[in-house]
Specification:
The chain is an alpha+beta fold. 46% of the residues lie in helices and 14% in strands. It contains 7 helices and 4 strands, in the order ααβααβαβαβα. The chain is globular.
């Protein structure tokens, strides 16, 4: 798919069919994640690949009862790894670069999923401590949850801010 077509095709989907995601597609998404740029190439993030019904239910509860998480065949949970980044970049790496690394990786996953005919939605509303506890990842910082699957709904086209409201030329 052409890049700009891909961007136009991406929509937030919160209903998923029960259709299984092929391992080849999941592997391609993981390859895309691993190709994401990161500060100092440290890749200061960890990704939990969740297929377990019990873990998805716990994750949905930790995400303030967003039960559509359970419908998705796979959920990717992105964590910043502050320690990994702080070794080289100190407190800025710990508080900023590791979070940026995780968000870039999640964005690559989202776009790869769409390119493969799958759908997802970016979730940032969750209890950080609960999500970390579910995965035994208390030293990590949860950044995003991406439920991934084949869509069971048609996306609603949403409006965007006018370009002149977003961009501020400085001459």
């Amino acid at each position: 798919m052409e890049f700009f077509d891909l961007i136009q095709k991406r929509h937030s989907i919160r209903a998923y069919s029960s259709r299984h995601i092929e391992e080849m597609k999941l592997n391609r998404i993981m390859d895309a994640i691993s190709s994401a740029p990161s500060a100092g190439n440290l890749q200061a993030y960890e990704v939990f690949v969740v297929k377990s019904e019990a873990k998805k239910k716990a994750l949905a509860r930790a995400a303030f009862d967003q039960d559509f998480i359970i419908q998705a065949p796979v959920c990717l949970v992105f964590f910043a790894n502050p320690r990994r980044s702080s070794v080289r970049y100190g407190s800025r790496g710990e508080t900023l670069y590791s979070v940026q690394d995780a968000t870039i990786a999640a964005t690559f996953a989202m776009l790869a999923a769409v390119d493969l005919g799958l759908s997802t939605v970016w979730l940032g509303a969750f209890d950080d401590d609960e999500v970390a506890k579910i995965f035994g990842a208390e030293t990590l910082h949860p950044v995003a949850v991406l439920p991934i699957g084949y869509p069971a709904e048609e996306p609603e086209v949403t409006s965007r801010r006018a370009l002149e409201d977003v961009f501020h030329p400085v001459w």
